[in-house]
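Hello,

Our lab assistant flagged a job as stuck in the queue for most of the afternoon. It eventually completed. Since we weren't sure the result was trustworthy after the delay, we are filing this so someone can double-check. Below is the sequence as submitted and the structure that was eventually returned. Let us know if re-running is recommended.
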Amino acid sequence: MKKIQITDTVLRDAHQSLLATRMRTDDMLPICEKLDKVGYWSLEAWGGATFDACVRFLKEDPWERLTRLKQALPNTRIQMLLRGQNLLGYRHYSDDVVKAFVTRCAVNGVDVFRIFDALNDTRNMQTSISAVKEQGKHAQGAICYTTSPVHGIAQFLAMGKELAAMGCDSVVIKDMAGLLTPHQSAELVQALVNELEIPIHLHSHATSGLAAMCQLKAIEHGAFGIDTAISTLSGGTSHPSTETMVAALRDTTHDTGLDLPLLQEIGFYFREIRKKYHQYESEFTGEDTRVQVNQVPGGMISNLSNQLKEQGELDKMNLVLEEIPRVREDLGYPPLVTPTSQIVGTQAVLNVLTGERYKNITNEVKLYLQGRYGRAPGEVNRLVRQQAIGNEEIIDIRPADLLEPEMESLRDNIGLLAQSPEDVLTFAMFPEVGRQFLQDRADGKLVPEALIPIGSSTEATYCSAATEFNITLHGETYHMQVTGSGHRSSSTRPMYISIDGVPEEIMVETLDEITTSANGDNGVQTIRPRSSGGRPKATEPGHVKTSMPGVIVDVLVKEGDRVTAGDPVLITEAMKMETEVQAPISGKILAVNVSKGDSVNPDEALVIIE
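-- returned structure --
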């Protein structure tokens, strides 16, 4: 038996799963010399959510991160996670964009491309696999493991054969939610090893507490390699500990040959680094066997808890986790991995927060139900499809076949803000966020999210454990719980609290920003009720509002337009998914109180119809 190869995820999936993908490049580089000496088969260091997090939150150039890591790791393969035709974004891209993206990744330092499709639709992987092979790099095809009435060994084995026929150099079982059991691992790995001539790798999250046992069974049945994470960023929604698996296999026929004391030194380094990111720690990233039911992957639950906390709705997490399997069934049992995890998760959040299932349906769910993400694994709920897209045509071809080449128009659109081919691709991945990043870079205004020092006066609003206290006012005692805070603007910050179990939002703002308006009929000065964003409160039937906090992506109407109830008037983005906001009544647009890029809250009258 040959030794087992190790891929360490500490520079990508580990902190994506535990710390909302917030680790900065400057905290990676100092340890790279030691990482490079370990002898890993590869280090997963790029792709997945890291690209988005760099641009959106850390204000780092993700391409620069890649090149700096490559320089610091000259002897170690750098591996990335690529979403097939979705690349690193949340939609399908034309083939010329896919080829250009893969080429620039290879040029800048990616050696191993782990390629997957969220629906296990291999049609959406072919262009990426071919592009990787053209660059002379390692193409690893991923089987997204899940359980449902339409998934099993036979389906996964057939997919493995397809990936081998497409030219993949290896195949990985991608158990993103930690659903595998030891017995299932042994059975699936054995089936693939018996039928395929290329190596089989196992990637399994430790959420259910079973991953290390699954890895051992996979090794015993012929797996070539496993994914692990340095101990201080392992476990829970991350991966089994590197040091633990190296120790477990030492002096056996599967000995990894890795230096355990060196790995322990690296672990001590990341133990200290992890403390810097304490504000992103979540109570939902530990071991939790509920994943065997809700199937929520680690990176998703880490980001979901942070997003709910910022909206003051963290107490709804359990309801969301219960709703996710129901939405997944309605959509034909897609595996929960980006972008389908966001599609299903965001719709579940909307269903819970609005109190009515599918009252608001995201644009991504509508596109999914049209077939524009690929072929659903099972039958979708026809009533949900009818409610979402009516009688619109459902496509059954590879979605990218409907797309015209995009690279030329992308270059023209971003113009001089793009200083390199990589900048054009950054804009392609995230048009609004990418453009703003490039503009801020040009203006010298790139400022990352603040890291809150441990023990600082503002720490309480960020820590995962809520602050609880009692307040007595006029003889009445109220139990109050601080559940989180939102993004600070130039003069305001939303604070989220629970008063005797009832969630509330408090906007902290300066008094001189409270506005008054004159009554045109009698000249009397009156104070209008204002929302947290300085807009009128949504109190009338003709007031258009959102179901959850978000950002305005597009304004579809202007003052004076006439609309019919149900017409789309705005498009908002929340939790990286877009939703049409529809007119609640028919009438004339009296006022539009938002512009593209504005942050909005559910209590605001964004558009007024009379």
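-- support follow-up --
The delay was a queue issue, not a problem with the job. The result is valid. The first helix runs from residue 13 to 18. The longest strand covers residues 476-485.
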